[in-house]
Amino acid sequence: xxxxxxHRQSLLKAAILWITFALVPLSLSAQNFxxxxxxxxxxxxxxxxxxxxxxxxxxxxxxxxxxxxxxLPKINSLKFxxxxxxxxxxxxxxxxxxxxxxxxxxxxxxxxELKSVKSIxxxxxxxxxxxxxxxxxxxxxxSTNTIDLPFNLTIKEDKVLLEGKKPLKMTxxxxxxxxxxxxxxxxxxxxxxxxxxxxx
Length: 200
Known about the structure:
Blueprint: H1 2-29, E1 30-34, E2 41-48, E3 53-57, E4 60-67, E5 74-83, E6 87-88, H2 92-102, E7 109-122, E8 129-140, E9 143-155, E10 160-169, E11 179-180, E12 185-199
Antiparallel strand pairs: 1-4, 2-3, 2-12, 3-6, 4-5, 5-7, 7-8, 8-9, 9-10, 10-12, 11-12
């Protein structure tokens, strides 16, 4: 009986060790990077009947998990968040209209979350830069759409850079384009999100 108990314990220890060592390469191969709010920029641009406009996101956060051990990097996860009321144009009245249109009292954040990577390819043969098309859910003002997000991915030793732009329509997210001066100034439905972000 003692032999069987000792043998069973030995097998259990061996199994635990095997599982531990089997998992080590996975944990080492996947690297997690956090968005650095103090670097880079996220900007929204658009038009109106009076002039073009732009707003910059002052509060952004997110994380990306990469496996860079293969021939091409693999993006395991990506989530990107902008605090809706951190969008600033430098004009208080315009910001107020923006927050009203986005219903920021109810919907605090704008969020993109990765579902899958459609394509990834090196920009040049010897570069650490890649052209990526990621499919994910974009949620604005409580409405969620699945979109393709194209961007350039640059991988350095201690950081990752994501750069790209994406045209959107406000009405696709049930947002009525803001108006000003009793409706005499109307914002165009089409906007563009431009981002140049640093992840560490």
